[in-house]
Specification:
Elements (H helix, E strand, L loop, with lengths): L15 H5 L3 H5 L27 H22 L3 E4 L15 E4 L5 E5 L2 E7 L7 H22 L14 H10 L13 H13 L2 E2 L2 E2 L2 E5 L29 H4 L5 E5 L5 E6 H6 L16 H6 L6 E5 L5 E5 L2 E7 L2 E4 L2 H12 L2 H16 L4 E6 L2 H4 L47 H8 L4 E5 L4 E6 L17 H9 L3 E6 L5 E5 L2 E5 L1
Parallel strand pairs: 7-8, 14-15
Antiparallel strand pairs: 1-4, 2-3, 3-4, 5-6, 7-10, 8-9, 10-11, 11-12, 12-13, 14-17, 15-16, 17-18, 18-19
């Protein structure tokens, strides 16, 4: 509630210094109580509250703060983007940020904030994708809405905009942009669900970390409508995590909570069965880790969104049939598996081989097992230079080791070569391929998928000019070297998958 210093009966007395330092929100925008009834006039149609001239300098400071926050959060998601600020001029601060994102033909983009145009340029030369633009717009829409609700709103504020992490709201605005439209009055289900999972991650149940998840239901299917939500259904939010028994009802992998359009806990469902009922002829266009394939399929139709807290304590978000975001190692990562698989597929030049290896890498990553996959361009060129002759799988049984050998002999592992001799990654069972890849060393194939080596310690003595960093690990060094002979996928034990081509890392997943 706002008090006027000119009326002695309006509230507590204030000193001259206190009156002088009244906040901009309190002095310039006469805000009502938080529990005041919502105005029927949409925010976009309400007149902006004029600011007195003596306060413009303070608004400039606030605008500079918002611009700094935008640049900081942009760098969090896009460290490869260079922000080129506009020349100094007098911006129109009264109208608010007025955010606009304008892609350019050269792969860069113009960015309008406070009526000033800035430039976004990728440092790696890669053009901004449609998904990149969608996320940048989401950041702008959240910050713009916060600005208006701080300084220009004449009705009760949406306090949930300032609840939880800013990045969580950016993810929410990316998936459900309408929840951050100025005319929206309902909190974002995405941001609310993420905050709920964050809170659940702080708990344990019977000395085990909690894993859970929710399917946010989208549009109803007229042929198979959702069951009606019970009248006494609880809201799906942070308060629900106080019920310890709730953690046993849903494990996040087989079972998920169903959350309706109003954000209420509507029920519990078997995610595999739910996904099978939404069968789609284009299922499987983008590979996904085996444990979460049903979660991805469940979001292919009707706008469903799946958010999961995994046993690894990662928050995973699935939308439009894909694993879109992951929160791990203290930050959100934009995955874009479709674009990254497309580039890997182009490098391998065989969709069947590319898919088999990519799928195996995803499964190993989810299980936190390291691996190194090499698709060699010219096997003859790699023999003896990248892959030692005793690691190379011969097509002849006569190349097997002698019947007597020392277990410490480097040639001893030839005794197991017959298990993979003549095999192809397109024909071998996925679990067997993952087992071979999990051995120390690399697994190598040719472009047709024929296995060349497994458990191979790659050589790089003949590449002194590669310029390897001293701090690189053994697997990273091997990946950089091997990428001179073909396409490489490296799986780290922290769950990160990296692609290397021509001596450079081209993406992380």
């Amino acid at each position: 509630m706002t008090y006027s210093p000119d009326r002695p009966d309006a509230g507590p007395e204030r000193s001259r210094d206190q009156i002088h330092t009244v906040s901009l929100t309190e002095e310039c925008v006469m805000r009502p109580r938080i529990d005041a009834p919502e105005s029927p006039v949409p925010l976009a149609q309400r007149p902006l509250a004029p600011l007195p001239p003596e306060r413009v300098c303070e608004v400039e400071a606030v605008a500079e703060l918002f611009l700094g926050i935008f640049r900081r959060d942009l760098a969090t998601f896009f460290p490869h983007l260079q922000f080129l600020p506009a020349p100094l001029s007098t911006p129109n601060l009264i109208a608010g940020p007025g955010f606009e994102f304008l892609p350019r033909l050269d792969g860069s983009a113009d960015l309008c904030l406070f009526q000033q145009t800035h430039r976004l340029v990728p440092r790696d030369g890669m053009a901004l994708t449609r998904q990149d633009g969608q996320l940048i717009r989401a950041i702008g829409s959240v910050l713009g809405l916060r600005y208006h609700h701080l300084f220009h709103l004449t009705t009760s504020g949406r306090l949930e905009l300032f609840r939880g992490g800013s990045e969580d709201h950016y993810i929410g605005a990316f998936v459900e942009p309408w929840a951050y439209d100025p005319s929206a009055t309902r909190p974002s289900r995405i941001a609310q669900t993420i905050l709920t999972l964050r809170t659940a991650a702080l708990s344990t149940y019977e000395n085990h970390r909690v894993s859970t998840g929710a399917l946010l239901l989208g549009r109803d299917d007229p042929e198979r409508p959702f069951p009606r939500t019970a009248a006494d259904a609880l809201p799906y939010g942070v308060e629900l995590t106080g019920l310890k028994s709730i953690h046993r009802l849903c494990d996040g992998k087989r079972t998920l909570f169903a959350v309706d359009a109003e954000g209420r806990l509507a029920g519990i469902l078997d995610i595999a069965r739910f996904a099978n009922e939404l069968a789609d002829p284009h299922d499987g266009d983008v590979p996904c880790a085996r444990s979460y394939q049903a979660h991805a399929r469940a979001t292919r139709a009707r706008g469903h969104v799946c958010v999961v807290l995994s046993p690894n304590q990662e928050i995973k978000l699935f939308a439009e049939g894909r694993h879109v975001f992951t929160f791990a190692h203290g930050r959100w990562r934009v995955l874009d598996p479709a674009a990254k698989f497309a580039r890997w597929n182009d490098a391998v030049r065989s969709t069947a081989v590319a898919r088999s290896i990519f799928q195996a890498a995803l499964n190993l990553s989810e299980n936190r097992q390291g691996a190194l996959f090499v698709v060699v361009d010219e096997p003859r060129a790699a023999l003896g230079r990248l892959i030692a002759s005793h690691d190379f799988l011969s097509t002849e049984a006569s190349a097997a080791p002698p019947s007597e050998f020392s277990p410490h002999d480097p040639l001893a592992k030839r005794a197991l070569h017959y298990l993979a001799r003549g095999r192809n990654v397109n024909e071998i069972d996925p679990a067997v391929l993952e087992a071979l890849a999990s051995l120390d060393g690399a697994i190598a194939t040719d472009r047709n998928g024929r296995l060349l080596a497994f458990g191979a310690i790659l050589r790089h003595e003949d590449l002194p000019g590669l310029g390897l960093a001293q701090a690189e690990g053994a697997r990273t060094t091997a990946a950089l070297v091997a990428s001179r002979y073909g396409a490489v996928l490296k799986v780290s034990e922290d769950g990160i998958i990296s692609c290397y081509l021509s001596g450079e890392k081209v993406w992380d997943l």
